[in-house]
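Exercise 7. Given the components listed, write out the predicted structure of the assembled complex. Treat all entries as one system.
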Amino acid sequence: MQQAYRYAVLYFLLFSLLLLGSSLLLFEDKIGLSVTAVLQYYLGNEEKFLVEKSWLTILKIILPHIFAFGLFFMVLLHFILFTKYKKSKQFIKLSYAIFIVGFLELSSPYFIIIGLDFFAYVKLISFILLELLLLYTLWLLLASIYKH
Amino acid sequence: MKPLLNGLLVFMLLYFIADFFVVNATLGLVSEDIKMTLFGNIDEFIDPMDKSVFLEYLHGQIFFIMMILLTLSTVYARLCSIKRYSIIVINILMISALLSLTTLFISYFYIPNLVGVYIFSFFIWHIIAFIMALHSLWNLNFATSI
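Answer.
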């Protein structure tokens, strides 16, 4: 890869770290990093003045994320094609895992509002897992750039 | 490929111009305005910006800036004939953009006086990005070596 492109990718990875950091802060601030907090956020809580989320409210939140997730995952993962991992099974597994976990993270609120409280765990675990998988991808890419 | 890149670069130029107006209207472009938006003003009965609103704004800005600057940098690296020069410009652009986002975060949560650094880096990255897009357009359409 040309050196100028390598710099562009390196900075993209740094921006990605900021994006992951801000999403963690936002999740912690708006929803909370516990199962009870997730349930209260979607099902409402009078003591905390939280209104129950409707089907449409959730759709309005996830709509920009559906596009952004797809674009971000694709851009980030396609950089792996320029590394030694491009033909490895790890790359394919990582790609599937990121897209599936991303889908679970986006869709789980709907299962919560129809009464399946168990999906509060899915929401929380998928969010944390997605952050970890993306961090791992960033680490693979940063290590590849550093080696060059 | 040429019409596609022309279209992309023109839209980028429009984005950089429009961003000035939008940021001016939402956050402000001078220190007093930004501080008033972020921290409010008791005398004028203006509430400070809510933490979650600020984080949502920052989160969206990070995503937009990273995508547009990655695209612009790769186009610029392809079209700029002097490689060493393009690397320096890309570094300044990216560092100033990263600095603008981080100083805005630090200003809101820890050091309000860093708003000045935010404004400076915000203008730097916008001006450099604008020049890069113009330079790319010029090289794409008028340079003979590409």
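Discussion: The interface with chain A takes residues 51-52, 55-56, 58-59, 62-63, 65-67, 69-70, 73-74, 76-77, 80, 83, 86-87, 90-91, 94, 97-98, 101-102, 105 of chain B (CB under 8 Å). Residues 2-141 of chain B form one domain.
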